[in-house]
Amino acid sequence: TSFYPSKNLGAYGDGGAIFTRDEALAKKIRVICNHGSTVKYYHESIGVNSRLDSLQAAILDVKLQHLDAYTEARRQAARTYDELLADCEEVILPKWNEDGSHVFHQYTLKVKAGREKRDAIRNALQERGIPSMIYYPIPTHLQEGYQEYGYKAGDFPISEQLTAEAISLPMHSEMTREQQEYIIQHFKETL
């Protein structure tokens, strides 16, 4: 679990946690995260310094008490986006599973017209000081680090389509309706 500052439960700096019920795996993870050591300065294996510092833990402890409220605020922001974009046939909104518990870390939608229009929207928003993000702009099978597997463009067309259409709008638990109306006004103007 990432506790990066922009996450739903975020610290003020980097941090994270690993959860497991496997005691042997937990022991191995602790060793790796502590320079490969169980005894200070004696390294059993190669490891990293990956411990959550006390300040970040204290911040998370306080924020954890408000996580349900933060989550509901993000869901309300998502509902507002859905409402403001309901008449926009050029986009596909995120799906809600009423039986699930979407926490809307991101509000990601799809621009049907594809990469060129999506990128133009992102640039126009950026010019107006509105942040947006294109997460994972290149599908995994086309990344340089995976070329040894021999995949090429067209092998995974759905992944390729998603990387051309997806854009994430600003999302956080303190968003106001006015902010969202401003964002969507400029989004629609460019669309």
Task: Please outline what is shown here.
The protein is mainly alpha-helical and 191 residues long. It has helices at residues 23-33, 54-64, 67-85, 115-127, 157-165, 177-190; strands at 37-39, 42-43, 91-92, 107-111, 166-169.
Structural features, described:
The protein is mainly alpha-helical. Helix content is 40%, strand content 8%. It has six helices and five strands, in the order H-E-E-H-H-E-E-H-H-E-H. It has helices spanning 23-33, 54-64, 67-85, 115-127, 157-165, 177-190; strands at 37-39, 42-43, 91-92, 107-111, 166-169. The strands form two sheets. Strands 3-4-5 form a three-stranded antiparallel β-sheet. Helix 3 packs parallel to helix 6 (177-190) and helix 4 crosses helix 6. The longest helix has 19 residues, at 67-85. The model has no long low-confidence stretch (mean pLDDT 93).
